[in-house]
Write a structure and sequence with these properties.
The structure holds two protein chains of two kinds.
Chain A: E1 4-7, E2 10-13, E3 19-25, E4 31-38, E5 42-51, E6 54-57, E7 65-66, E8 76-78, E9 87-94, E10 103-104, E11 108-112
Chain B: E1 4-7, E2 10-14, E3 19-25, E4 30-38, E5 44-51, E6 56-59, E7 62-67, E8 72-77, E9 86-94, E10 103-105, E11 109-114
The chains are: A mainly beta, B mainly beta.
């Protein structure tokens, strides 16, 4: 089944403890991205990747890192999480460099205490 | 910067009614527009994608139209069912912005279909 998977689905952590949220897609898509969703603010893009080893900042990149060493994986790294990073995170992928239908993962609900 | 607005923010209608959800965007230089459905606490399910050169797309009881020049899209749901209850999100790819490549989302329309 064609899909985008994220792990973990739920995470509660404490301020400053490094964490990684994994994202993987099995559709051979070149383009992958991360969004966060917050009440009243909607979905906002954090980072995106046009292909392996090519990443760029989205609208809200502060406090996040990403890497794209393989086409299928695009992990989101929070080096020193803070409470304002408590949010619902979505990974997405798309063929054609992003100029096409985007497929979203199930989401990761992160709480930073 | 591209901005996307969805009206109404919430809508409650009896089962069986036909309904229209509205989406507007400020910059007409878009590549495409996509409608999603989001169930509470869940991910986004893609409903319809309209490329900038297209006027509409249909899938089952759903029909989405795009008027790029006026910066508007509508999602028409025919013969609504309780299972259609969800938040519907409109998103555009492209338009003026801070150089970021990706989707700009509206805040959604929360739809409740009463049995």
């Amino acid at each position: 089944e064609a899909q985008v998977t994220q792990n973990p689905r739920y995470l509660i952590t404490v301020t400053g403890k490094k964490l990684t949220v994994t994202c993987s897609q099995n559709m051979n898509h070149e383009y992958m991205s991360w969004y966060r969703q917050d009440p009243g603010l909607g979905l906002r893009q954090i980072y995106y990747s046009m292909n392996v080893e090519v990443t760029d900042k989205g609208d809200v990149p502060e406090g996040y890192k990403v890497s794209r060493k393989e086409k299928r994986n695009f992990p989101l790294i929070l080096e020193s999480p803070s409470p304002n990073q408590t949010s619902l995170y979505f990974c997405a992928s798309s063929p054609s460099g992003g100029r096409g239908e985007q497929f979203f993962g199930p989401g990761t609900r992160l709480t930073v205490l | 910067k591209q901005e996307v607005t969805q009206i109404p923010a919430a809508l409650s209608v009896p089962e069986g009614e036909n309904l229209v959800l509205n989406c507007s965007f400020t910059d007409s230089a878009i590549y495409n527009l996509q409608w999603f459905r989001q169930d509470p606490g869940k991910g986004l399910t893609s409903l319809l994608l309209i490329q900038s050169s297209q006027r509409e797309q249909t899938s089952g009881r759903l029909n989405a139209s795009l008027d790029k020049s006026s910066g508007r899209s509508t999602l028409y749901i025919a013969a609504s069912q309780p299972g259609d209850s969800a938040t519907y999100l409109c998103a555009v790819e492209g338009g003026s912005g801070g150089g970021a490549d990706g989707l700009t989302f509206g805040k959604g329309t929360h739809l409740i279909i009463q049995p």
